[in-house]
Design brief:
The chain is of the alpha/beta class. The chain has 2 domains: about 5-90, Elongation Factor Tu (Ef-tu), domain 3 (Beta Barrel); about 100-260, Rossmann fold (3-Layer(aba) Sandwich), CATH 3.40.50.80. It has helices spanning about 25-30, 70-75, 110-125, 145-150, 170-180, 190-205, 235-240, 250-260, 260-275, and strands spanning about 5-10, 15-20, 35-40, 45-50, 55, 60-65, 85, 85-90, 100-110, 130-135, 155-160, 165, 185-190, 210, 225-230, 235, 245. A 7-stranded mixed β-sheet has the order 12-11-10-9-13-14-17, sandwiched between helices. Strands 5-6-2-1-7 form a 5-stranded antiparallel β-sheet. A 3-stranded antiparallel β-sheet has the order 4-3-8. Helix 6 links the parallel strand 13 and strand 14 (about 210). The structure holds flavin-adenine dinucleotide and FE2/S2 (inorganic) cluster. FE2/S2 (inorganic) cluster binds near residues 217, 222 and 226. GO terms for molecular function: 2 iron, 2 sulfur cluster binding; flavin adenine dinucleotide binding; metal ion binding; oxidoreductase activity. It holds the Pfam family DHODB_Fe-S_bind. This is Dihydroorotate oxidase B, electron transfer subunit.
Length: about 280
């Protein structure tokens, strides 16, 4: 079954929002879940992307992705009217949405995309939500307006100070935690960012949920490609996650595994970029 792209927008350098027809996925999806998407069933790998939003009337899901390698660069070259061969899901366990009280949600870079539906659901469940959004610079900061609409307070930071406060996300996070009013933290972004957010919240004993972006192959718990160590046990991100207790995750191992295929990924992206030159 083909899944047509009905809308496409470039949000920032290399970041795209796409609305894709996937009626049954949209109907079944809960916040925190993801899909595996393939452009061409015969020759493409299947890429995990979080379902950032759904439109039940239109039968569509929205994904927001960064073109970082071969497959995501290929996705970015597609346009409205083109179709994906497969949109499998919804996969993974939904976020545990409850009324916790005061929740701080931290997004880094493309991590703002998977964070968005979680913040929306936490707010709807009656929580007070403070969103901290971070990016390397102003151009890379995405979804600020959308977060403003669903957060009680928003703090923006950039590494280079080109927008908002010049800081890493852990700075305002630490300040909020030290006031002793935070009941839960949700942190989604690069593994290194999540690692330091967890170190910050651990000092104050604040429960922290992270969503892991492990490398995935089959997405069914069979191949072991997405394995992570959590609390000394091996877990599979696709079926046991993608969200885990951040204080128990072995981030150093995750970071090492994310870098395992770097050489081959760079080669594949370079060859692919040459073929697509001028199309993006
Ligand atoms: C459950 C889940 C949800 C995700 N949701 C989103 C999302 O909503 N939006 C989004 O942009 N990305 C998301 N990702 C990450 C996305 O799947 C990867 O960026 C994608 O697989 C890269 O494929 P590629 O072929 O384009 O690049 P590759 O050639 O595979 O990699 C290119 C570069 O990206 C890095 N990379 C590869 N895989 C990952 C990964 N899983 N996470 C982080 N860096 C990676 C590599 O180190 C390499 O430097 C998610 C991952 C998971 C597991
Ligand atoms: S992707 Fe294969 S076990 Fe999770």
């Amino acid at each position: 079954m083909a899944h047509r792209i009905v809308d496409k927008e470039k949000l920032s350098e290399n970041v795209y929002r796409m609305e894709i027809e996937a009626k049954y996925v949209a109907e079944a999806r809960e916040p925190g879940q993801f899909v595996l998407i393939a452009y061409d069933n015969d020759r493409s790998e299947r890429i995990p992307l979080t379902i950032a939003d759904v439109d039940l009337d239109k039968g569509t899901i929205t994904v927001i992705f960064q073109a970082v390698g071969k497959s995501t660069i290929e996705f970015a070259s597609l346009n409205v009217g083109d179709s994906f061969d497969a949109v499998a899901g919804p996969l993974g366990n939904p976020t545990d949405i409850e009324k916790y009280g005061k929740v701080v949600c931290v997004g880094g870079g493309i991590g703002n995309a998977p964070l968005y539906p979680i913040v929306k659901a936490l707010k709807q469940a009656g929580n007070e939500v403070i969103s901290i959004l971070g990016a390397r610079n102003k151009e890379l900061l995405i979804l600020e307006e959308q977060f403003k609409e669903i957060s009680d307070e928003i703090i923006t930071v950039t590494d280079d100070g080109s927008y908002g406060r010049k800081a890493l996300v852990t700075e305002p996070l630490g300040e909020l935690c030290s006031k002793g009013e935070i009941d839960l933290c949700v942190a989604i972004g690069p593994a290194i960012m999540m690692k330091f957010c967890c170190q910050t919240t651990k000092k104050y004993d604040i429960p922290t949920i992270v969503s892991l972006n492990s490398i995935m192959v089959d997405g069914t718990g069979m191949c072991g490609g997405c394995r992570v160590e959590v609390g000394g046990e091996t877990k599979f991100t696709c079926v046991d996650g993608p969200e885990f207790d951040g204080h128990k995750v072995d981030f150093d191992q995750l970071i090492k595994r994310l870098g395992s295929y770097k050489k081959y990924e760079q080669q594949a992206a370079a060859e692919h970029n040459c073929k697509l030159e001028g199309k993006l």
